[in-house]
Fold:
Amino acid sequence: MKIAVKYFASMRDIMGKTDESVELNDDANITDLWAKVSTSTMPENTLIAVNMEYTSQAHKLVDGDEVAFFPPVTGG
Amino acid sequence: MKIAVKYFASMRDIMGKTDESVELNDDANITDLWAKVSTSTMPENTLIAVNMEYTSQAHKLVDGDEVAFFPPVTGG
Amino acid sequence: MKVIVQEAEFDPWKAVSEYQAEHLAEGKHGGSVTFIGTMRDFNDGVDGISNMYLDHYPGMTEKHIERVCQEALKQWDVMDALVVHRVGAIEPNDAIVLVAVWSAHRAMAFDACRFVINDLKHRAPFWKREATEEGERWVEGNSVDAVADQYSNAKKAG
Amino acid sequence: MKVIVQEAEFDPWKAVSEYQAEHLAEGKHGGSVTFIGTMRDFNDGVDGISNMYLDHYPGMTEKHIERVCQEALKQWDVMDALVVHRVGAIEPNDAIVLVAVWSAHRAMAFDACRFVINDLKHRAPFWKREATEEGERWVEGNSVDAVADQYSNAKKAG
Structure:
């Protein structure tokens, strides 16, 4: 399946890109996705959104999902 | 001694006046003042100010004090 | 810090905006919290309130509110505060009261603003007289808001 | 209810005043509480911050804030809410965020406004990058405000 991945803020500096498209096996979750995009462990405090809703690493992905990785937010 | 007395809101309706000047013996307190201006007991919840600061019935008066009697406030 | 008690109508946002432009140093406050109380056309279950007269104790009212603002500035990390309160004849939808506070941090601005408006409601010498369809009546204490305060204490948003 | 995320500068008091005139029924709301967050020229002990860039996640940001406002409308007796949040390049003293809520009673307006701004600070996908005299840096979480929130919990004004 095909997953659209986005990175924001300091996560862009770490990954060296703003977004990418990733091919994954069916039944993959966020942990599997991270292993595919990076050889490092996921930075502590990384926030994860699937289709613009917060979720956890155990979240199972489906074809066409948009996944975002980003650091703690600092709005307001 | 001479005390200036003011009434506000429903206390004006009860007393039938907005203010008066009262002659009192030295050492009089608010309770003595009330006995001089009214034959009824003071309405429950009456608030008392002497020289524009909240106080209690035991407050001893001095010549020239301004005393106000009024019901619970309803500002804002 | 400024406390204004006035009969004239006022635009609360214009008042707070002008006060900030005149009195607040640029780039030093991080947050401002503003409470605006507006006259409703209903109160305590009575509909059709056509207008209101707000009596006050000239002199004591200003003195009392100034003291409360000074307390707020001392108790929280608040830089400045503005209070405007109407008296006299007030129409539905008029702004009755404005409380604005400026602070480096938002939690203190919220706490200080709430402290000032709560004291103002429960202690500042103002009295409302409403004209309803059945005639005039003095409003008997801020009971509905007292209930709302209680509710709020049990359900604080942090 | 309206949520606006925009690059353009805005006048927060004008925004809230215009929104109220357009969207709020006359004489029905008793109180409105407004929080305005302004860019300071210092943060976390660093002085001389010349400007800031606010990154966000287009789409998720709006969706997230809208959901939070809907939650506030449901949880408290709130009639309406307006949020405006800047993104992009921001100068010191610019308004960054406006949260305005209208309610029949003030305690609920305070609680709801605070709920929205707290969530917005801690959960809405925005990221600040500051330009200091030593170069650019990503701001690392709203730590100072977290401390202020804690302080506030211990010292609630009711």
User: Anything to note?
Assistant: Chain C touches chain A at residues 106 (CB under 8 Å). Helices of chain C lie at 12-23, 60-75, 106-123, 143-154. The radius of gyration of chain C is 16 Å.
